[in-house]
UniProtKB/TrEMBL annotation:
It comes from Nitrospirillum amazonense. GO terms for cellular component: cytoplasm. Residues 10-243 form the Radical SAM core domain. Its cofactor is [4Fe-4S] cluster. Keywords: 4Fe-4S, Chaperone, Cytoplasm, Heme, Iron, Iron-sulfur, Metal-binding, S-adenosyl-L-methionine. The lineage of its organism: Bacteria, Pseudomonadati, Pseudomonadota, Alphaproteobacteria, Rhodospirillales. GO terms for biological process: porphyrin-containing compound biosynthetic process. This is Heme chaperone HemW.
Amino acid sequence: MLPLTAPDAGATPGGFGLYVHWPFCASKCPYCDFNSHVREGVDQARWRAAMLREMDHFAARVPAGRRLSSVFFGGGTPSLMPPETVAAILERADRHWGITDGVEVTLEANPTSSEAARFAGFRAAGVNRLSMGIQALNDADLKVLGRKHSAGEAMAAIAMAKGIFDRFSFDLIYARPGQTVAAWQDELSQALDMAVGHLSLYQLTIEEGTQFHTLHQRGDLVVPDEDLAGDLYEATQVLLNQAGMPAYEVSNHARPGQESRHNLVYWRYGDYVGIGPGAHGRLTLDGQKIATRTHRAPEIWLQRVEEGGTGAHADEIVTAEQRGREALMMGLRLAEGVNLARLTAEAGGLNPVDLGAVDRLSRHGLLTLDGDRLTATADGRQRLNGVLAALLG
């Protein structure tokens, strides 16, 4: 069983987190469909004030007594923020919800030399976990992926992070054009030599609206077929298990106790506030689960915050049926699985799972049901979309 999140007075199961979306990047990666934008200049003071104001808006809505389990600065590239902005956001979050020594504060960073120079400043501002977007450990593939750092910069940034942060993670992308199993195994071994407790390993997917999608449609970008992608996934599991960093979630591997506590809030279907352009949130208010989302376009979000205190669209009530489905979809991503009683509670007293499908999938080695806990096996997590389709009908 993975560790529980920090205590949260008045909590719903799963914990309570704060997500801060910084929407700006130095350049747009060709595979990225996140809400990220390139701008020549950013008025840092203006953006800092807007982030704080939108946090105040949501804090006024959250029941008294909630205590944060985690804070996550994502993007975009939040390491382009000045450390002073990070410190101001954390100070305001502490005022609203409390940031104790046990609260995980993660910041996503790129390993370019200019951003790595700020690592100590982010640590002094209150960040205690760094997540770096390395993506590849050779210059040729970094160029294909549109990354602006070199492999040498990546390794130097990892070494710098080790000296500043007790907890840090980095990402790699596999199933890249032309990648072989042997080459990926060598790269993973190199990564494991540098990793401390956590690695995020994502299979390259071709998302609509990206440059890679256009190239793929034209036939100018060829990625590994389904069989090779499966072989790359299996090789990943073998090496990481041998290294003592098994998958605790579909794409995330950690030594015991090094799991991302913030992401566990999502996967355990906890509550979280989302601030910044395009940020999503889930809040339990007056017994109802509320979905929040803010306007994606940075300038429109900024104008709305300055005029009205928030860039959020109208709340959406998550129905009991949707809650059950969402909790199942998130929970089965985890190696620990999900509790059927929790699903039933989220779904308003009705079990959202087709137990006949559970039996069939269990016979095929894709699920296990141990008492009240439903878990996708390693094979089931590899085929999770199909498993969920069968369970939810």
